[in-house]
Structures are given as C-alpha cells and as structure tokens.
Amino acid sequence: xxxxxxxxxxxxxxxxxxxxxxxxxxxxxxxxxxxxxxxxxxxxxxxxxxxxxxxxxxxxxxxxxxxxxxxxxxxxxxxxxxxxxxxxxxxxxxxxxxxxxxxxxxxxxxxxxxxxxxxxxxxxxxxxxxxxxxxxxxxxxxxxxxxxxxxxxxxxxxxxxxxxxxxxxxxxxxxxxxxxxxxxxxxxxxxxxxxxxxxxxxxxxxxxxxxxxxxxxxxxxxxxxxxxxxxxxxxxxxxxxxxxxxxxxxxxxxxxxxxxxxxxxxxxxxxxxxxxxxxxxxxxxxxxxxxxxxxxxxxxxxxxxxxxxxxxxxxxxxxxxxxxxxxxxxxxxxxxxxxxxxxxxxxxxxxxxxxxxxxxxxxxxxxxxxx
Amino acid sequence: xxxxxxxxxxxxxxxxxxxxxxxxxxxxxxxxxxxxxxxxxxxxxxxxxxxxxxxxxxxxxxxxxxxxxxxxxxxxxxxxxxxxxxxxxxxxxxxxxxxxxxxxxxxxxxxxxxxxxxxxxxxxxxxxxxxxxxxxxxxxxxxxxxxxxxxxxxxxxxxxxxxxxxxxxxxxxxxxxxxxxxxxxxxxxxxxxxxxxxxxxxxxxxxxxxxxxxxxxxxxxxxxxxxxxxxxxxxxxxxxxxxxxxxxxxxxxxxxxxxxxxxxxxxxxxxxxxxxxxxxxxxxxxxxxxxxxxxxxxxxxxxxxxxxxxxxxxxxxxxxxxxxxxxxxxxxxxxxxxxxxxxxxxxxxxxxxxxxxxxxxxxxxxxxxxx
Lengths: 371, 371
Known about the structure:
Two copies of one chain form a homodimer.
Chain A: H1 3-10, H2 17-21, E1 25-29, E2 32-36, E3 49-51, E4 54-56, E5 64-65, H3 68-75, E6 80-85, E7 89-96, E8 98-103, H4 110-120, H5 123-128, E9 132-139, E10 157-165, H6 174-184, E11 191-195, H7 197-213, E12 218-223, E13 229-233, H8 235-247, H9 254-271, H10 275-301, E14 307-314, H11 316-328, E15 333-341, E16 344-352, H12 354-366, E17 368-369
Antiparallel strand pairs in A: 1-2, 2-3, 3-4, 6-11, 6-12, 7-8, 7-9, 9-10, 12-13, 14-16, 15-16
C-alpha cells in the first residue's frame, strides 16, 4: 500500500502524510518489516501498526473511574455491561496472511504469536471474519511480561475481551462478541451483569468486593455497543502494583507510584466508612510499600539478582525467538534455569532492573546521598 | 558596593559579573532593596543575599546519610560532634546596621526578624562579633512556616546551631560556637557527644532511638571544626513528613514523597532486624500515607479548608507585616481567627493548597480521570 492510501485508511487528524508518518517506527520481526506508532498521535492509538497491506489499530486507552458514586453516572448515559478485567498483557491478534500477536505498544511478539496459535486456534475465526481482530489478555504465571497468579490457571491462557474491526478499531457489541467467543471456543471474561448507570454503582461495588476477596484486578464497564469504556480496580490490585513498584524503586517512575496511591485513597474514602477498617487497610498498604523495598535492599546487600523473575514454556524455537525479541529491546536478562521435557522447554529468567540494582549498591557502599 | 567589588567578595566560580548576577533576584522589604540568589549557582549557596554593603552567605545544603554503617566512616575521616537537628525553619540572622532574619531562600522575613530581636536580643553579640551571623532554627507550634510540636515549647523559640562568617560562610568550631551560645544566652541544640567515625555509628543510632521515641527529627554530624556536615533523621520524622505530603497530595511533588520513602526503607533495612518489628513499622508507614489523604478527600467533600493551618503571635504591626510578606509570595490565605490580649495578637490562618483543593473537588464531582 502506498503512503497516501495508508494515510487515508488510518483516518487521523494529521494534516499530511509526513506529519503522521514521522511518528511511526520501522521494525522487523520474523522477516517482516512493519511500522508501529509507539505513542498516541493525531487521533491514532498507541501501538497502531501498518504491516504489508494491513492496518492493525491500537487498543484505546481506557479512562479510569476514581469515585464510583459520581464517576459512573457522569460518564455513562446508557446501560452498561460490567465484565472482569484480568491482570495480564493486552495483545491484539490480527490476521496478516497468518495470525500475528501485537503487544500494546505495537511489537509483533513471536512467543505470544506462537502461544495464541496454539491456545486459541484462531484460523477458523479469521476465515469467517477476516476483517476483525481479537483483543485478548495473556494471563497466568508463565508469561514473559506479567506474572499475576490466577488459581485456575497453571501456566498461561488467553482471555478474549474485545473483538474489533482491525483497521477502524470499531468494536462489536458486547452480546455479539460474547456469542462469537462461545461459538469459536475462546475463553472470555466473567460478565457480572448489565445495569442502568444508577444501579451500576452498587453492581460494580459488589463485583469489586468479590474480586478483591480473590485478589483479582477489577472490572471494565462498557456501553452495550462496546464503544465507551471505563475501568475500576480492587484494593488488592493497587497493593500488588505498589509492591511491584517498590520492589524496583529506582526503575518504576514516581508517577506510577503516585497514581496508584491516589486511586487507593479515593477508593478508601468511598469504601471504608469505618475507622478501624480504614486503619487495617492502611496497614496493608504500608506492608505493600515497605516490605518489598526492604527485601530488595537486603537482596542487593546479599548480591542476589535484582529484577523481575519470569517463567516461560514452549518449543526451543519459540523460546529462542522470545529471548531474541527481548534482547532486541535492550533488556538485560539473567537466564537462570532451563528444563526440557519432550519437545517443551521451560525457562526461568530475570529481567534485570539495572537502575535499582546500581542505585542501591551505590547507597549501600557509600551510605550517603545529597538530596 | 559596586558590581565588581560584590563579585569579588562573593568568590564564586562564575566567569564574570553578568554570568553571576543574572541569577540574582531583586527584592524589597521594609524600604530596603536587596538581591537574593533563589537557587545555588556557581558555587554560591541558595539564599545568598547582597543587601547594601553586606553579603549574607546562604546556608549550605547538608548531605544526608542513608546507611549509617557505611555512610559515617565513608564520609567522615576525623572526629565528629553529634547534635540534635530540630524541625523548624532555618534562618540566618545577620547584622545589617540592625539584625535582619533571612529565610533559607533569602527572603528578609519581617516577622522572624521581630521575633529574633525579641527572643535572642542579639545586639550585644553583633557588637562584639559584627562579621558573624547566627544560623538558627525557628521552632515551635506558633510560627508561620512550620508547626512541629515540641513538648518544651509553648509558642516558638530560636535554637542557634551554627555561627558563621556572614560573608564567607566559614563556620566557627563546634566548641567555640557552643561557648558563645552559652555566653550570650542563645538556646542551642543538644550535643549527644563527640566520636571517632567507627564509634559514631553506634552513637548516632542511640541518639536516633532516643529522639525517635520522643517524635523528634534527627541529628546533624559535624567535624569539630564545623566544616563538614551530614544529617540523619528518625522514623517518626519520615512519617510526619509523609503525612504532611499526603494531606496535600497534589501540592507536594512526587520527588518529596519518593525521597522520604527511600530514606525510610534504608533505615528500616538497617534498623529492623526482626520481621515483626518491620511489619509494625510498615503499618505505621501505611497510616502516615493513607489516613491523611483520606481525611483531606473527606474534608474536601465537606467543603472544609484544604491547606496548612498556622498560628502566629505578635504585635499588630508584626502580624500585618507578616501577612503582607506572605501575600507578596502569592500565597492564598484564609484568615480564620484573630484574638488580642493587651498588645499581642494571635492569628490563625490557612495557607490554601490550591492544587489539592481543586484536583480533589474535580475528581469528587466527575469521578473519573484518564491516566
């Protein structure tokens, strides 16, 4: 496709081709060259990709409700569906002659592609619906990007939460999408219910309490046509993310931490009417902050690895392709353990958090900083 | 004094007068015009002031020890004195025909000047030592800048922790300074002891435990000549500052919060060998973060004032001059209560935290943000 056609099909707010395409990055993967938009620009979502004759639209950013009581009725005018939001990696699986899996920021991930082919077997779906893409969360303890544990998942799985027109990004309605997932056997997130906005406040609150008790992430609310979305998360999710951030304090941005503390405080102000409950919650929050940070400092003092530990599973070719893909992104990896059973390899590795490792070692040795 | 003379006397690393003086701000107070350096530049400390024929050197930034065990022996080669660091406002009182009090960032504060004249009566000292300045902490519940409570202070007092050459900033030795404070009746900070570096680790730790139990700030360590300094603070101080920051979450920078969490974690890693103690500490930390933030959200929901509350005491003229000085700095004040007894006024006011107030009101009304 030539530049002009591509520009027209992307339907951006940019004034001309150059104005738009200067923001795209040229990348290669598995003998394919593609162009990806690393950040949202000119009305085009982050992670939008042009590969050969196909446009794969990025997944839109979902606004976050901070206060259920005012947020839901202010944001939603019409009936909404409340579905579980899973803690994993958002990937789009699109049909580019073959199924390819794209990460949120528009990388073709060879490992995720291979797993998607195996676990979702999407060929029949793409045969019937070549213009659609599957938007799915890759979840489970064995993925190369996230490690949230779900009781029901031993290794990893995909959960299809959206089906969208690949080029325009227009979603199917909630009911059409859920029907198709059943038809093609795709796992999909739990549906808590459909509510008018005033009733949704209690509906979401009940769902959140159920999910929080099981240490799960939260919900996404969507109008029934699927166009308008908002998310809301549990206390346990906020604490899990803070624990993660404070286990690598010099690698995660100050903004990351601050935004999670803000959502935690607004939820506490809305949910915890009882002072003792609020105090208990504050104790859990304090543990989420201090214990991981102290553990990391002690690990550094004992010369242990500082970073995130992942386990992945696949054929030797798939594992090699994944590691190459990660090295391409300039990550420093420590490969710890490789086991092989029949054709399947299991690899444990650490993505080294260099800033945290180096900063803590510096402070431990010199004991001082000028602030 | 002309520019060239001033440049020479400042003894900076700047290449010429313009290079240095472009960083100075012109200010006026009580019919005086003066020039102040709002940020450290060219080897000149922040808050350095040129007023008429006098150079008033800024107070140097004190490096912070993060890990006592390595920090003290790395930083100090020679014997050091360990003195209490008080939580108040760092002011310099210099003799410019009359005693004037300068804030850390180089403002002449009329209120602090008046209080210093009254409480320290420094005229005799300046008569004997015209070239020196008193570096003092203004502390107590009744000051316009800080509100840390000390059991022994009802209103406010000055504590002289340094005496320095006004122009060069060169300090007196610890023993000369302490002797002069006794001679002229200036209150001064507690001296915990003089130690060689290896012994200072335990000395500081004992002092910190004593101070922490009384919810006091921490210590400053100084070589006996007074030239080299480092500070170290208590858990209760970290928590107090975090509670303050999270009571005004959108006014205090992310950096403020983060740096205090880092010092807290390094101290916890060094001090809390016992897991249960570490967990208890985490609970206190969580309370310091969540409870003030939730309280501020609820205050905003109930349309209460959002900001810091201060009480000051003085003659009507002193109070007027202070309020004018604060308005000059573009602060929004809510004056709540004025009482008068004989010649003395007591005024309560709130420095309004506009960013926090507006941001929280926005979230409470709209319930959503896009992050």
